[in-house]
Amino acid sequence: MMINIRKLESDLWESADLLRAGSKLTSNQYCMPVLGLLFLRYAYSRFKLVEKEVLANRPVRNGRVLPVDANDFKSKSALFLPEAAQYPYLVNLPANIAEAGLSDINGMPIISLGEAVNNAMSLVEQQSEQLQGVLPQEYTMFSDELLSELLRIFNNDALDEVGGDVFGRIYEYFLNKFAKNIASDDGVFFTPKSLVKMIVNVLEPSHGILLDPACGSGGMFVQTGDFVNHAGMIANNTMTFYGQEKVEYNAKLCLMNMAVHGLNGKILSGDEANTFYHDAHNLAGECNYVMANPPFNVDKVKAESTEAAGRLPFGMPAVNKSKEVGNGNYLWISYFYAYLNEVGRAGFVMASSSTDSQGKDKDIREKLVKTGHVDAMVSVGNNFFYTKSLPCSLWFFDKGKAETLKDKILFIDARNYYTEVDRTLNEWSEWQLKNLNAIVWLYRGEKEKYGRLIAEYLETFHNSVTEIKEICQSYRQLLDGDRIGHFDCAVDHLCKELKEMTAETLIKPDAVIESLKATAEIHKKCTAGVLGSFENVPANLQKEKLKDIGFIRLAAYKKALEQRGEAVAEVINDYITILQEAKWLTEKFGTDGEYTDVPGLCKIASIDEVEEKNWSLTPGAYVGVAAVEDDGVDFAERMHEIHAELLTLQQQSNTLMEKISANFKELEI
Question: What angle do CA 193, 194, 197 make, to 5 degrees?
Answer without folding.
Answer: 85
